[in-house]
């Protein structure tokens, strides 16, 4: 099963009838995705993967496309320090390549946090398993489907 098909199956299992849109152009960055979709960059729910330093767990922060994640805030939220995850770790722990990490359909257990800023939008867009695939959903659907904790994770200006 391809990564996109795994996301489609996870969405269906969650009862979300979301259409996955695939673009000719890459939607790897928030700006690229927003341009392809025709939405605000802040409506892009980007998946950032970190590695918990003590437990080795994958920590995914679903952040608004305009925000930078404050690693100290994430550390405080999960109770252990985090570090950057390399491409091999991301693929091994989530089943996705960097640029296409979806909020659902992971191949292993992950700790998932949702940027509170995403809750301000009526609809958001998330990666669907490939660098050119996205799907639309509401922040409430994202929260319900992932069980992720909604938190303030952005760096202060």
UniProtKB/TrEMBL annotation:
Pfam family, one: tRNA_edit
Domain YbaK/aminoacyl-tRNA synthetase-associated span(s) in chain numbering: 26-142
InterPro entries per record: YbaK/aa-tRNA-synt-asso_dom_sf, YbaK/aa-tRNA-synth-assoc-dom
SUPFAM superfamilies: YbaK/ProRS associated domain (SSF55826)
Ranges annotated as spanning the membrane: none
Protein name per Swiss-Prot or TrEMBL: YbaK/EbsC family protein
């Amino acid at each position: 099963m391809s990564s996109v098909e795994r996301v489609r199956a996870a969405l269906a299992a969650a009862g979300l009838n979301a259409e996955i849109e695939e673009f000719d152009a890459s939607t790897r960055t928030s700006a690229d995705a927003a341009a392809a979709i025709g939405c605000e960059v802040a409506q892009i729910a980007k998946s950032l993967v970190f590695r918990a330093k003590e437990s080795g767990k994958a920590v995914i922060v679903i952040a608004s496309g305009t925000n930078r994640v404050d690693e100290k805030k994430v550390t405080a939220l999960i109770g252990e320090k985090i570090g950057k995850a390399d491409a091999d770790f991301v693929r091994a722990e989530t089943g996705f390549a960097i640029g296409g990490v979806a909020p659902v359909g992971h191949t292993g257990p992950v700790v998932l946090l949702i940027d509170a800023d995403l809750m301000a939008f009526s609809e958001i867009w998330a990666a669907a398993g490939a660098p050119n695939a996205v799907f639309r959903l509401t922040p409430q659907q994202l929260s319900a489907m992932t069980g992720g904790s909604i938190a303030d994770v952005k760096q202060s200006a």
